[in-house]
């Protein structure tokens, strides 16, 4: 089954690549392309077999996200967000999870984990209000999540450890307003607008605790702590985008590009050859690192082993390192391509903007290195962050 979904998704890649400029101008994925991606199995890759999904391993899903991002980073990002949100859905009651997939496995999920909402307890659930940023793919999603602070009598509630009491609420997309805010330097085609609700009722069974909750669905993917692996998916998008930048550079120089007043082709430049070879090695190392973490996590999940804080922190640092390395590679390709990459019509320029948009995600920031470092020397950390 896994091989078939790989073949189906890869058959769509040329069309995704061809429509990259259109996707950016629309600021969202075209409906017909979403239909093609759905039919290929993009949104069911992590869904367990018993719900009709492909149940790919973590490493297999990273590979496909990278392939999609190599064709177009916005497309890879939207698929990545929709797929990885499944891990969060596994924290909801099992009956809720089953109801989401009762009609089939091709469910597009979206939303935001930013703590930008409020949840007021009422009989049977919560009244949810708020506006959340960065809801990638929200215009195509069936369900959207929002993270909300619990309020009683207008006052925020706190847990015993002093952290705010929060609920992640899952709402039908039909109940959520999309606020057109996505005007950005990169990843323009992701449609990562704000989403907004005002005093919407959300049943208790469609809410959960995001941090520290125990998954209710039995499958290897849900045996992995859900927060840290999300960064691996982000890193896969960056690696795919950087590989595309190398591809673009090679196409330019192999096509016979010559420097101004130069007698030799750019491809003959020893400096270009050295920097290209170095970039290729750096990117392959970044890819190997995130896949190594994915394989280790999957092995632990299959064996029913516990994930230590260091295990989780290393998934984070691998992801942050991979995004940094991929960005360096894309920047190198952009510079080596010369002045032609300045123009809006240059796909290499789009790759550069897209990958710098990825660097701004909080899930792959440089601060995760200090968390791993603290654990290595036996110091305590805020485990909620990993």
From TrEMBL:
One Pfam family of this chain: Acyl-CoA_dh_2
Q: Which domain of life is it from?
A: Bacteria
GO MF annotation terms: monooxygenase activity
Chain ranges of the Acyl-CoA dehydrogenase/oxidase N-terminal domain: 15-84
Q: Which InterPro entries match?
A: Acyl-CoA_DH_C, Acyl-CoA_Oxase/DH_mid-dom_sf, AcylCo_DH-like_C, AcylCoA_DH/ox_N, AcylCoA_DH/ox_N_sf, AcylCoA_DH/oxidase_NM_dom_sf
Keyword terms of this UniProt record: Monooxygenase, Oxidoreductase
Q: Where is the Acyl-CoA dehydrogenase C-terminal domain?
A: 233-364
Q: Which SUPFAM superfamilies match?
A: Acyl-CoA dehydrogenase C-terminal domain-like, Acyl-CoA dehydrogenase NM domain-like
Question: What residue ranges carry the coiled-coil annotation?
Answer: none
Write down the PANTHER family for this protein, in alphabetical order. Answer: ACYL-COA DEHYDROGENASE, ISOVALERYL-COA DEHYDROGENASE, MITOCHONDRIAL-RELATED
Protein's recorded name? Flavin-dependent monooxygenase
């Amino acid at each position: 089954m896994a091989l078939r979904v790989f073949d189906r998704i890869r058959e769509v890649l040329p069309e995704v690549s061809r429509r990259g400029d259109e996707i950016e101008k629309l600021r969202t994925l075209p409906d017909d392309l979403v239909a093609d991606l759905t039919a290929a199995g993009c949104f069911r890759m992590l869904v367990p077999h018993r719900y009709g999904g492909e149940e790919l391993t973590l490493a297999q899903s990273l590979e496909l996200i990278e392939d999609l991002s190599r064709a177009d980073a916005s497309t890879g990002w939207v698929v990545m967000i929709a797929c990885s949100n499944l891990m969060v859905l596994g924290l909801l009651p099992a009956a809720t999870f089953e109801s989401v997939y009762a009609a089939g496995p091709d469910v597009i999920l979206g939303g935001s984990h930013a703590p930008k909402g409020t949840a007021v307890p009422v009989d049977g659930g919560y009244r949810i209000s708020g506006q959340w940023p960065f809801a990638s793919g929200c215009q195509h999603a069936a369900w959207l999540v929002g993270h909300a602070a619990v309020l009683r009598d207008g006052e925020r509630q706190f847990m015993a450890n002093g952290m705010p009491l929060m609920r992640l609420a899952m709402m039908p997309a039909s109940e959520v307003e999309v606020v057109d805010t996505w005007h950005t330097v990169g990843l323009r085609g992701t449609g990562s607008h704000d989403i907004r609700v005002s005093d919407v009722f959300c049943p208790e069974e469609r809410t959960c605790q995001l941090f520290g909750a125990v998954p209710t669905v039995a499958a290897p993917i849900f045996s992995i702590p859900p927060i840290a692996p999300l960064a691996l998916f982000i890193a896969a998008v960056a690696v795919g985008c950087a590989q595309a930048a190398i591809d673009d550079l090679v196409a330019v120089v192999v096509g016979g590009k010559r420097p101004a007043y130069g007698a030799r082709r750019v491809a003959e430049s020893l400096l270009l050859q050295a920097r290209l070879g170095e970039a290729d090695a750096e990117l392959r190392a970044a890819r190997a690192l995130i896949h190594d973490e994915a394989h280790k996590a999957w092995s632990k999940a299959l064996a029913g082993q516990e994930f230590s804080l260091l295990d989780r922190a290393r998934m984070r640092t691998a992801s942050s390192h991979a995004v940094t390395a991929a960005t360096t590679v894309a920047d190198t390709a952009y510079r080596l391509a010369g002045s032609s990459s300045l123009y809006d019509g240059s796909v290499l320029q789009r790759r550069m903007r897209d990958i710098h948009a990825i660097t701004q995600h909080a899930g792959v920031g440089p601060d995760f290195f200090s968390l791993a470092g603290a654990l290595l020397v036996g110091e305590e950390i805020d485990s909620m962050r990993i």
